[in-house]
Structure formats: structure tokens, C-alpha cells
TrEMBL record:
GO terms for cellular component: cytoplasm. Keywords: Aminoacyl-tRNA synthetase, ATP-binding, Cytoplasm, Ligase, Nucleotide-binding, Protein biosynthesis. This is Histidine--tRNA ligase. Residues 1-400 form the Aminoacyl-transfer RNA synthetases class-II family profile domain. Homodimer. Its EC number is 6.1.1.21. Belongs to the class-II aminoacyl-tRNA synthetase family. It comes from Flagellimonas olearia. The keyword Manganese does not apply.
């Protein structure tokens, strides 16, 4: 008996309707990327392992998919390493490449390798899949697309403001009103770690804090204790968990909390400038919100950090995020190149639009016109007609066989075709073709030499 086929957990097949909806989101994002002056690049699906490892923190490293070397890779491992059963020492011996975890680190690698070919500041966008060995759940997949935009070679905070505006423009265009753009600054978190006496545990502090909205305050504090952050330090950080009010009120509280931290005060100043400038310019439908507990666990962020939440009432993780990285290219030998970037979570945005019924109805239509098949002679004439309609810009097709009319109409109905053409023996004699509107049932005749007129009427109806 044949084995029942399956796909790996955390991956998906996409139907034609789903692909159409995903393409709608991608094209909307792409349009705004280009409107804001970003240029497209692409990088390989897999990178050398040393390009990726060590760039995302311990948790990120564990989620990187490793690719086994080709050939008899085990024979090249020495007996001591093999018998140790230690994955940390064995993995480098049998795997030299890995699937990319995100698009930012490969982009940094790209910038360093092509630094003599690009003009700085370099604004790039990239829309490609990434892979993470994560536990699959709603809105979290092992294979998913990221839609990234980054600027490198410019340290002006106007870039952060531009990204706030870009998020707002895209979500407004998608009809996703009420999205919340959360913002914080890693310098503020560094300052807090400094003033509470946990500067040496900054990574552990931020990784735990980043889980606040997922596991709650109590669990976050437990994790901090497990990581060696003292109870007294956690108590000093308590204002973080209860900070409220407007952005300006929270910034004022932070100034008091971070008065003895130079780096923390720099972070407060940067946030103040970004938020006040964005508020001065104004947003269309999104809200900009200061969230002092926002940490984002990736190690390369050094300044402003972003995370976008779906409109209130939608249970979904972040649908976008990003931040400033002052020296990401430094890990590949190109020092002092500041950058900032954001990402749109295509798959989660899809789920949110689906839940809120925000996809345009027209996306369900993959074919504008279907011409029925009445036989060999009529079919040849219909094929010529269909070819003419395609030249007029319509998505047109001919049913391939002269099956029963009921079967052909049923096919058109299942495909959601709005117009069906009947071109039988009598129509050929009259020099006409008959069009049936599948929604209203109305039928009209058109001259065979008037395809342009019919095509314009179809286009106008969409």
C-alpha cells in the first residue's frame, strides 16, 4: 500500500486563492517599499554556518536549521568526537551550511561583500522565505516569508521616523486600521541594567523581559532570578512593569530612573526625538506607543526597536518588528556602518486580514472569462476569440473539451468566473458571441469583431 504523503510540521501548501491573497499583501508592501526609495536585492536560501551562528543570541542559534554536508560526512568525523555524542562539537564537523534565520544578517554580509558596488546610504528591500526550527503554533511557522526594508550608512533618526511612516502607510493601504507600532530603545534597557546593578547580565535581562506579553510578569521575574539577576535588582526594575501614561509622561519617568546612566539618557533623548517628530508629521491610521518593556531578543539591536501589534481584539503575536543596529556589518569586517530596518510578518498579516475579512472580494476571481466548448469547429473559433480577449488584457480561457453544458457551467461556477461566453454554431453564423453574467444571469450578444468593446465593459465591472 502506498505511503500517505505529508509535509513537515510548520510548513504549508497554498491553494490558488491563498496565493492570490498572499500576493496582494506582498504587492502592497512592495509598492510602498519602492515609493519610499528602497531597492530590491535577493540572497541565497542558505548561508555558511559561520555567517549565521552567534548573531541571534543563544535562543536564536538553537532555532537555526543546519544542512548536512554532502557525501559520507560521518566518515570524516574522528572517533573521539563521534563517540562523545556532543552535538556542539559534532555539528561543525558534519554541517557547514544553514538555512537563513532572517534577512538582516545575510543583508549585512551582502553589504560587506558588495561595499564597492553600492552607494551609501543604501536602502534595500527584500521579500524572501526564512526558516526557524521553532515550535509550530498559530501564527508561528518553521518556513515563512519576511518582507524587510533596511537603510545602512545613515545614523539620522529621521530614518526611524520614516519607518514609522512606512508601517502606517502599508497597514492603512491594507485596511488594517488601528495597528499599534510599539517603540523602545535598547540604550534605555542597557541603562536600566546598569542602574539596577545587572549590566553584566544585559542579554539575560532583555531576553527575559522580551517575554513579558507571552508569559506574564511573574514568570519573567522567575526567569531573571534563574539567570542570576538578584531580587534587589529586579525590585529596582519594578517601575518598568507598571509604567503608564502618555509617551511624554513615560519619558519623564525614565529620565528620573536613568539619571545616573549616560547611555540610558541618550536612549531617552533618541526616543523623544523620534516620537515627537512622528507626532508632528502625523499618522494615518496606526498608533505609535512607547513600550518600555519591549526588548526584542536579537543581540544586534543597539538603538530604537519596533514591534507592531494587530488591532485590539485580534489575538496574534507581533505582525512586524525591527530596530537600529550600529555595527552589524562589523562582524564581517566593515566597521562603523550604522543601519536600521524593519520587517513585515507576511503570514501573520495574512491571518489578521482573514480574521477581519479585509481581503478584497476581487482576489477570489482568478479568471475573468471562460469560453464554453461546443465542438471541434466551434472550439477553434472560441480559441481564436480567447486569444483576442487575452490581447485585450483579460484573463480568459477555453474549456478544453466539449463536455455537457451542465458540467462546463458547474466548472465556471466553482472557479468563480464572472462571465461565460457561448459561441455555438448559430452564433458563428450570426458573427456574434453571447456573454452570460454568472451573477445576474443576464445574457447579451456582441459582434466577434468588437472584442475591445466587450473587454472594456468587463474591466469597468471590476
Amino acid at each position: 500500500m502506498a505511503q500517505k504523503p505529508s509535509i513537515p510540521k510548520g510548513t504549508r501548501d497554498f491553494s490558488p486563492a491563498e496565493v492570490a491573497k498572499r500576493s496582494y499583501i506582498i504587492q502592497t508592501i512592495k509598492k510602498h517599499f519602492e515609493t519610499y526609495g528602497f531597492q530590491p536585492i535577493e540572497t541565497p536560501s542558505f548561508e555558511n554556518s559561520d555567517t549565521l551562528m552567534g548573531k541571534y543570541g543563544d535562543e536564536g542559534d538553537r532555532l537555526i536549521f543546519k544542512i548536512l554536508n554532502s557525501g559520507d560526512f560521518i566518515s570524516k568525523v574522528d572517533d573521539v568526537t563521534y563517540s562523545s555524542k556532543n552535538s556542539a562539537s559534532l555539528t561543525p564537523k558534519i554541517s557547514e551550511k544553514a538555512l537563513r534565520y532572517d534577512l538582516t544578517v545575510p543583508f549585512a554580509r551582502y553589504v560587506v561583500m558588495h561595499q564597492n558596488e553600492i552607494d551609501f546610504p543604501f536602502k534595500r528591500y527584500q521579500i524572501q522565505p526564512v526558516w526557524r526550527a521553532d515550535r509550530p503554533q498559530k501564527g508561528r511557522f518553521r518556513e515563512f516569508y519576511q518582507c524587510d526594508a533596511d537603510v545602512v550608512g545613515a545614523n539620522s533618526l529621521l530614518q526611524e521616523v520614516e519607518f514609522v511612516k512606512l508601517y502606517d502607510a502599508v497597514f492603512t493601504n491594507l485596511g488594517l486600521k488601528g495597528a499599534t507600532i510599539k517603540i523602545n530603545n535598547r540604550k534605555i534597557l542597557s541603562g536600566i541594567a546598569e542602574v539596577i546593578g545587572a549590566k553584566h547580565l544585559l542579554v539575560d535581562f532583555t531576553v527575559a523581559l522580551d517575554k513579558l506579553d507571552k508569559i506574564g510578569e511573574g514568570k519573567v521575574k522567575e526567569e531573571m532570578l534563574e539567570k542570576g539577576i538578584s531580587e534587589s535588582a529586579i525590585e529596582k526594575a519594578q517601575p518598568l512593569f507598571s509604567m503608564a501614561g502618555t509617551a511624554s509622561q513615560q519619558l519623564e519617568q525614565l529620565r528620573g530612573l536613568l539619571a545616573d546612566s549616560e547611555v540610558g539618557m541618550v536612549g531617552v533623548g533618541e526616543l523623544d526625538e523620534i516620537i515627537s517628530t512622528a507626532e508632528h508629521i502625523g499618522l494615518q491610521s496606526a498608533q505609535l506607543q512607547l513600550d518600555v518593556t519591549l526588548a526584542r531578543g536579537l543581540n544586534y539591536y543597539t538603538g530604537a526597536i519596533f514591534e507592531v501589534a494587530a488591532p485590539e481584539g485580534v489575538q496574534m503575536g507581533s505582525i512586524g518588528g525591527g530596530g537600529r543596529y550600529d555595527d552589524l556589518t562589523g562582524i564581517f569586517g566593515l566597521k562603523d556602518v550604522s543601519g536600521v530596518g524593519i520587517s513585515f510578518g507576511l503570514d501573520r498579516i495574512y491571518l489578521v486580514l482573514e480574521e477581519l475579512n479585509l481581503f478584497p472580494d476581487s482576489l477570489d476571481t482568478s479568471l475573468d472569462v471562460l469560453c464554453l466548448n461546443f465542438g471541434k469547429n466551434e472550439g477553434l473559433a472560441a480559441l481564436k476569440l480567447v486569444s483576442g480577449l487575452r490581447k485585450e488584457g483579460l484573463r480568459a480561457d477555453l474549456y478544453p473539451t466539449d463536455a455537457k453544458m451542465q458540467k462546463q457551467f458547474k466548472y465556471a461556477d466553482k472557479r468563480g468566473v464572472p462571465y461565460v461566453i457561448l459561441l455555438g454554431e448559430q452564433e458563428l453564423l450570426d458573427g456574434n458571441f453571447v456573454v452570460k453574467n454568472m451573477v445576474t444571469g443576464e445574457q447579451n450578444a456582441y459582434k466577434l469583431d468588437a472584442l475591445g468593446q466587450f473587454a472594456e465593459l468587463v474591466k469597468a465591472s471590476f
